[in-house]
Amino acid sequence: MSTWFITGxxxxxxxxxxxxxxxxxxxxxxTARDASTVQDLAAAHPGTALAxxxxxxxxxxxxxxxxxxxDRFDGVDVLVNNAGYGYRAAIxxxxxxxxxxxxxxxxxxxxxxxxxxxxxxxxxxxxxxxNISSIGARLSPEGSGYYSATKAALEAMTASLRKEAQPxxxxxxxxxxxxxRTDYAGRSLTQSAEAIADYAQTAGKRRKENDTAHGTxxxxxxxxxxxxxxxxxxxxxxxxxLLGNDSVTAFRVSLDALRAETDAWESTSxxxxxxx
Length: 276
Fold this sequence. Notes:
single chain
């Protein structure tokens, strides 16, 4: 029986994935900064679930949680780095402390979690690491530059990890969801304290007080959870999994635009070498 370790399970996609994993009969270590918010999952599955408090920016908590998971279930087979939150600000508006905290959770926390479980996976020559990114990594919308940067960094790290770990029997996959009906655009969304008037028609339109999308997103977290499980359990886990009609459409539009721009500037790009 495989054991999943999932961060950020209190609400949203993390909770939906924890429920789906447990319903499949797998073991699950379900974590949140406050374990009481996930204790109901453990109570409903006393033999297969372990609820733990975990702040992914705290190295000591990470080490302790992974150790408890290994003691209880003899190892972690699948790590899902889901913990994270949104942050909206024009680049000029972003607070230094805010941005550092954002990267500490969304990127460095995921790196620390991966490094904590990799020794066990290497020893067993099996495992999977799933990093929850966002279509924002591809689109970089106005007002989400810093958030998108954390997810782009996460995807680049995942791609390198996949190449390094695949020969050892370990897969690595980034997941790019579109808009799903979770708390991302509600409780989990923060923003800069300062709003500069000159950005009102760009980044300003996406500030929380102007965003009406929360609660109307078309993505179903339960279906996303099942798709992630299928990708991990399948014979050929992809390096990148898109989730949602909007994600697939936006990804293709982005690829087409990038290809067109590459074609338009190809002669200039190729002209930069030393002449023979």
